[in-house]
């Protein structure tokens, strides 16, 4: 589903057609010739006659340069295949990095939630102590600022989780917006995106636009990006 891989696949097909084009250049040009003739000389036995024939032409330059051109076209096909493989490895590396970033962001988010939970408890204790007159107002405000800082850190960690999840979707070529979605109506677009995510979580990946039968999606492909969405929604 990555457009870069689709481009390389089509480029390889174009390069293969170039091989056939170079072979056709070496073939002779064959044509039909014919005509109807008339002579006004009355002494001729037949003063009207017709002729027909086949004419074949060869381009000597194409015959000489043809084998070299075919070899260059074949090398272009090999280069296209190597470029496609290199791009596939690069995309796999991007997916691996995105998944690792997602895992790290989840760990950071869980830690930030625990710290925020402790901070909330500290804030409640600070309020109780302040109401009992056991501490000054400045100490209470300082502890409340600490609670606010932990809350901001938790929200930033949650944003990082969602950003890393978007990176996973982008690395795999999956688009949150379904094809043909209406972009002017926000409620309808929201519903379409939610339905697309539900299908992904159920293991129903988008179909590739190809005539060949697409391979069945592996369970790990859909299960990996689905978990953070459920976690983020619950939080």
Topology (elements, then pairings):
Layout: H1 3-26, E1 29-38, E2 48-57, H2 60-131, H3 137-172, H4 186-201, H5 219-234
Antiparallel strand pairs: 1-2
Helix pairs in contact: 1-2, 2-3, 3-5
List keywords for this structure.
single chain, 235 residues, mainly alpha, Outer membrane efflux proteins (OEP), 2 domains, two-stranded antiparallel ribbon, 5 helices, rod-shaped, disordered C terminus
Overall description:
This protein has two domains: 3-174, Outer membrane efflux proteins (OEP), CATH 1.20.1600; 177-204 and 218-224. The protein has five helices and two strands, in the order αββαααα. It has helices spanning 3-26, 60-131, 137-172, 186-201, 219-234; strands at 29-38, 48-57. It has a two-stranded antiparallel sheet with strand order 1-2. It is rod-shaped. The chain starts with a helix and ends with a helix.
Q: What are the segments in which pLDDT stays under 50 over at least 5 consecutive residues? A: 211-235
Q: Mean pLDDT, as a whole number?
A: 80
CATH architecture of the largest domain: Up-down Bundle
Oligomer: single chain
User: Can you tell me the CATH class of the largest domain?
Assistant: Mainly Alpha
Q: By CATH's scheme, which homologous superfamily of the largest domain applies?
A: Outer membrane efflux proteins (OEP)
The portion of residues assigned to helices is 55-70%
Q: What structural category do the secondary elements indicate?
A: mainly alpha
Give the percentage of residues in beta strands: 5-15%
The name CATH uses for the topology of the largest domain is Outer membrane efflux proteins (OEP)
Count of distinct strands: 2
How far apart, in Å, are the first and last alpha carbons? Answer: 30 Å
The general outline is rod-shaped
Total domain modules: 2
């Amino acid at each position: 589903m990555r457009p870069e891989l689709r481009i390389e696949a089509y480029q390889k097909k174009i390069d293969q057609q170039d091989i056939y084009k170079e072979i056709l250049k070496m073939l002779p040009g064959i044509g039909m010739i014919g005509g109807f003739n008339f002579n006004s000389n009355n002494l001729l036995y037949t003063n009207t006659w017709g002729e027909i024939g086949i004419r074949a032409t060869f381009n000597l330059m194409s015959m000489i340069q043809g084998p070299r051109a075919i070899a260059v076209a074949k090398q272009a096909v090999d280069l296209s295949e190597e470029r496609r493989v290199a791009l596939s490895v690069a995309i796999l590396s991007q997916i691996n990095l995105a998944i690792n970033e997602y895992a790290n962001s989840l760990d950071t988010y869980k830690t930030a939630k625990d710290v925020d939970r402790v901070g909330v408890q500290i804030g409640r204790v600070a309020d109780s102590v302040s109401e009992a007159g056991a501490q000054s107002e400045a100490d209470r405000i300082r502890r409340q600022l600490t609670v606010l800082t932990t809350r901001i850190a938790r929200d930033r960690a949650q944003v990082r989780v969602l950003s890393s999840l978007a990176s996973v979707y982008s690395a795999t070529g999956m688009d949150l917006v379904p094809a043909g979605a209406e972009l002017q109506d926000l409620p309808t677009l929201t519903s379409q995106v939610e339905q697309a995510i539900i299908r992904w979580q159920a293991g129903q990946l988008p179909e590739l636009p190809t005539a060949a039968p697409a391979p069945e999606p592996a369970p790990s492909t859909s299960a990996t990006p689905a978990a953070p969405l459920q976690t983020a929604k619950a939080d």
